[in-house]
Write a structure and sequence with these properties.
The protein is an alpha/beta fold and 131 residues long. It has helices at 2-25, 33-42, 53-57, 74-78, 95-106, 118-124, and strands spanning 29-31, 46-49, 60-61, 65-66, 87-90, 112-115, 129-130. Helices cover 48% and strands 16% of the residues. A five-stranded parallel beta sheet has the order 1-6-5-2-4. Strands 3-7 form a two-stranded antiparallel ribbon.
Length: 131
């Protein structure tokens, strides 16, 4: 039984640390909807919705700013943000925002947080949205 517990614990540790290293290579940290909600309740942050304007208008997280990742002006638009402060990004499911982190890193951001599961996860947890 102890051997089984050691094997399970080892596998969980390997899985945990391998996921973190992938994020480190991609220049961002995934955060949960709960972590984002807690952060929003404590401070004002740079929260960027990288979905299209149409998606944004259908509902978004309060205080978020829409900068469309698919827009040709994306890099120019993120360049005006405060690079000395962390930036939090999200999209519909988390994929586009994860891809956008490379542009944020290239623009000079050092602390980049990606909402894991994106807006679908946030909305699924019944957190407040604005339309």
């Amino acid at each position: 039984m102890k051997l089984f517990q050691m094997v399970v614990c080892t596998l969980l540790c390997v899985l945990f640390f391998s996921c973190n290293s992938i994020n480190a290579q991609n220049n961002y940290t995934n955060i949960s909807a709960e972590e984002l909600a807690e952060t929003l309740s404590k401070e004002t942050i740079q929260l960027i919705d990288v979905r299209t304007p149409q998606e944004f208008s259908q509902g978004h997280i309060e205080t978020s700013v829409n900068i469309d990742f698919l827009s040709e002006n994306f890099n120019k638009n993120i360049d005006v943000l405060d690079k000395t402060k962390p930036v939090y990004v999200y999209c519909k499911s988390g994929r586009r925002s994860a891809k956008s982190t490379e542009a944020f890193k290239s623009a000079g951001f050092n602390k980049i947080y990606n909402l894991y599961g994106g807006f679908l996860n946030w909305n699924g947890k019944k957190y407040k949205i604005v339309k």
